[in-house]
Amino acid sequence: MTKRRLTKEDAKKAVYGGCILGGGGGGWIQDGLAKTEEAFAIGAPELITVDELQDTDYVACVSLVGAPSAKEAYTDRRQLVSTVQRMQKEFNRPIQALMTNENGAATTVNGWLQAAATGLPFLDAPCNGRAHPTGSMGSLNLSEVEGYQSIQAFAGGKGPMEVEGVVTGTLDISSNTVRSVSVEAGGMVAVCRNPVSVEYVKEHAAVGGITQAIELGDVFFSVPEGPERIEAVASHLQGRVIHSGTISSFELKAIKGFDVGFVQVDGLELTFWNEYMTAEMNGERKGTFPDLIMTFDAETGMPLVSAELKEGLAIAVISVPKEYLKLSSTMSNKKLLQAIEPIVNKSII
Questions:
Q1: Fold of 225-339
Q2: Structure confidence by residue, pLDDT tens digits, 285-327
Q3: Is the sign of the CA dihedral 103, 275, 17, 186 positive or negative?
Q4: Domain 3-210 maps to which CATH number in 3.40.1610.10, 2.60.120.260, 3.40.50.150, 3.40.50.720?
Q5: Would you say the C-alpha torsion 305, 236, 200, 100 has a positive or negative sign?
């Protein structure tokens, strides 16, 4: 089926499936569920495939930029919708659909509310089929397009920290500006950015990534609560459970709008930069970003993002080779991946 009205059941599956594909980042389950409740209060968004648009049509990406653990992070419905409206004014071509930047508990459903509010369809092609830390990793390799000018509309924060605006410049400057603004706004801003042609989307995005998240959520809920859920998810994704145990050491620091840290479970060490970057068992590498590394509550089987872990928690960890994921062309861009190494002090390439 190419075109369909999304349902609340789809939304729940998309949030949980998205959370798993978030690989430790991509936002919180409760935020994703709340966001879809708000979307369906407006109307049911429509999911379309890339084949329903012309190659020359333009679609824009919506995302949230900031640190998931920020205490004063705030964005509301008006701000989310205002970024799309501003983009429609600023950009010289009509926007025909919205897409999200990545899969994650909150990010898979990024744009459902904006789609419901504006009447624009939502595209089954996230910029990336898993969550990733930097804006450029979610920018469809536009960083490699000679002379590309990025346009990003943003809004967020409340009270004296409320901010909105638009920035145009190189991809790096625009993305860094928006991230700096997110810190000033209390930790988070809503963004509508970088309109691209459908032809470009087909080449660089994770086509079918929203359906992938919904299907993964379906697998997750088809098994009763408990550790069997983790096994079901791992086998569906063609990955495996690499270890279960109790967290003996956990460290998280908020650095420049990112959550950075490590987790120790027996002989297993995970590093994360919002998302899990490396998994090593007694020094042997078991997963390296963009492979999917994800943590679950060992007893209930519920997915846990990096920011909600703590010492003494019993967790299970899965690893899925990148070959089995729907990924953006950015995930094979060595320059973008190299940026991870100094952050987590591990080799990635």
A1: CV3147-like (2.40.390)
A2: 999 999 999 999 999 999 999 999 999 999 999 999 999 999 9
A3: negative
A4: 3.40.1610.10
A5: negative
